[in-house]
Design brief:
The protein contains 10 helices and 11 strands. By secondary structure, the chain is an alpha/beta fold. The protein folds into 2 domains: 86 residues, Rossmann fold, CATH 3.40.50; 133 residues, Rossmann fold. The structure holds guanine. The site of guanine has 8 residues, from strand 4 and helix 6.
Length: 291
Amino acid sequence: MQILDGQLVSKTIKDSLKLDVAALVVEGKRPPHLAAILVGNNGASETYVGAKVKACSEIGFKSTLIRMEDSVTENKLLSVIGDLNTDPDVDGILVQLPLPKHISDEHVIMAIDPSKDVDGFHPVNAGKLVMGSPAFVSATPHGIMLLLEHYKIETKGKQAAVIGRSNIVGRPMSILLSANTNYGNSTVTLCHSHTHNLKEICLRSDIIVAALGRPGFVTGDMVKPGAVIIDVGITRVPDASKKSGFALKGDVDFPAVSPKCSYITPVPGGVGPMTIAALMKNTFTACQNNL
Ligand code: GUN
């Protein structure tokens, strides 16, 4: 069994982007600029946005973090997005989800200019992905594809099970793995809460992507020997032995599954850092399209 080291691959990608930014600056151009909006004080969101801003500074991107109160109105948020859309200095815009209940995710996502939608959530980008046109691809599935590419994991003709059909991870993942591209061309089964025979589907799969947010859901008896396991789950579970008071748990029962598989992503240190690397790549692309 080999660990798919997201930390290491993410660093390689960020180091390469750092050189690309330096080259831009030598040409007299400005570095890429990511604007991140964080509404409220959700602990996990704070951590994720903090990691995104930190990655920007490591690579040499400019970043702007806009914090808004939990009580902010939808109109106010939409007007801030409108200003970022027309600001020629801003290449990428992300609004960290989840949002407070009184704000519609859909209204917010629709308000972002698709050319600055580095999260790939806007229907224009989601639609282009489905059609196989160049698009900003949601950072988590994009990062997983970069990981498969780095380790040269053969996907052509393989059976893949994606568990979870969210717009952010499962659904785009199923499209990428089934696309007629390198590291695509798999036969994909997209599983969800109404799927019958989930164990059977997993047992015949060469690749399993677990993205349902239920700690330890994929157990040893669900995995075919030699399968490739991608664990997207990152749930905070109480753990008194940790300073933070919680531990991060993946959707895969790592101790039971890891001895059976060929490759597996750890949690943390697998998919999480790749998500950041993919977001940085998207932001660089947005900047290139803009300059
Ligand atoms: N919440 C969970 N994942 C993501 C992500 O990739 N982007 C944003 N904006 N919010 C998220």
